[in-house]
Design brief:
single chain; 16 helices; mainly alpha; transmembrane helix; membrane
């Protein structure tokens, strides 16, 4: 009975967070801290900090992984699933409904959709600025970031993203192999190691087997699941970095148009919850409700498998200087990948005239300096796009 009560409590609290957590991954961690640590006291300050550190280390949506971890600690593995469902469901439903309103419309010709594309310019530029300040503070990491940008722009294939991350890890391992690790507290976990190992086996098994199954069967659903699973498996640095990965999976293959892609990304900024629910919008455009469910499960599954699989081993792993060095290189490369995505497809598809750049500058200022809520920025961008369209017609 106590387990059911704890499970119901996890569902209720995580759903409230899913309805109210605006502002992106960093803001989500602030909401989580206020609710889970200060108000509910489900986890202490030290354990929360360690869990956040783990989720920042892993690929995937950090805020969702923190929620999964806390839900698991509170109510077991089902608690982790419940925490994910509660936090994800509100934005999932909102983006599915938006996608259904967009299907069949000539959205590329509407001014407010163009405005949403300009919103994406401001939001990604703001993300790049914040990440660059933290992740490339010295010449070596700046060099890695620039190299990653060049490679990502000039070598646009399905192998480019993982190759950049792999090379950056090697560079970081070499350049920062003597990194020192200080002030690390001990993290307490209750997950059995055999369950953790099973999750890691499933994660890597799907990552390597799905492409082979995809080639053998040519099933549309296998192809779709593989594309979203791979995107969710290779995202280091937060939800914004999933943009180039998904763009190459769904736009270059012709599954959805660039206009549909960027307008959906803009709307994703206006809803609470994780940015990864952008996959629900794409899945709906492609295959309706079933497509939304498949895309969402596929892109979040790696995050769940990794956080459950690595948590019991994290305390000893994170103390190794070589791991810290590789991570520094990977984080620098993430900035470069995001810069490349900022140019193509975001800038090239959105900034078509001086008025577009002027609107993007205003929106960037609202985000970076006036600390305007993201939903206000999205509405302003949509209205600005309508105004630009109107004056161009007059």
């Amino acid at each position: 009975m106590n387990k059911l009560k704890s499970l119901a409590e996890v569902v209720w609290v995580s759903t409230l967070l899913g309805l109210t957590s605006f502002g992106g991954p960093i803001a989500h961690l602030g909401y989580f801290h206020n609710v889970y640590v200060k108000r509910r006291k489900w986890i202490d300050e030290r354990s929360y900090a360690d869990l956040v550190a783990l989720c920042q280390f892993l690929p995937g949506p950090a805020s969702s992984q923190v929620g999964i971890g806390i839900g698991t600690m509170r109510a077991g593995l089902l608690g982790g699933v419940a925490a994910w469902i509660g936090f994800t469901l509100p934005s999932f439903l909102a983006l599915v409904l938006f996608a259904f309103t967009m299907k069949g419309l000539d959205i590329g010709a509407t001014g407010w959709i163009h405005g949403l594309k300009i919103v994406a310019v401001a939001i990604v530029a703001h993300a790049i600025l914040g990440m660059a300040q933290k992740l490339i503070p010295d010449r070596n990491r700046a060099t890695i970031a620039i190299a990653a940008t060049v490679i990502a722009l000039l070598w646009q294939t399905s192998l480019s993203q993982i190759s950049i991350i792999f090379l950056a890890a090697i560079a970081g391992l070499f350049l920062y192999r003597k990194s020192t690790v200080t002030d690390l507290s001990e993290i307490q976990v209750t997950i059995k190691r055999d369950i953790a190992v099973a999750c890691l086996v499933v994660f890597f098994g799907l990552l390597f087997l799905l492409p082979a199954i995809r080639e053998l069967t040519s099933s549309h659903w296998i192809v779709m699941f593989d594309s979203f699973y791979r995107a969710g498996s290779l995202v280091f640095g937060g939800g914004h970095v999933v943009l180039p990965l998904l763009e190459r999976e769904v736009v270059t293959t012709g599954w959805i148009s660039s206009e549909e892609f960027l307008s959906g990304y803009g709307v994703t900024q206006a809803v609470p919850g994780p940015l990864f629910t952008f996959a629900a919008y794409i899945g709906t455009i492609m295959n309706g409700w079933l497509g939304a469910i498949v895309a969402t499960v596929a892109i979040f599954l790696p995050a769940f498998l990794l956080v459950i699989g690595v948590l019991p081993f994290w305390d000893s792993l994170r103390r190794k200087p070589k791991v810290q060095g590789a991570l520094l290189g990977i984080n620098a490369a993430v900035v470069g990948i995001l810069v490349a995505a900022f140019y193509n497809p975001i800038w090239t598809s959105s900034i078509l005239a001086p008025a577009d750049f002027a609107l993007a500058a205003i929106l960037f200022g609202m985000l970076a300096y006036w600390k305007t809520p993201s939903w206000v920025v999205v509405i302003t961008g949509a209205l600005g796009g309508v105004a630009i369209s109107y004056f161009q017609l007059v």
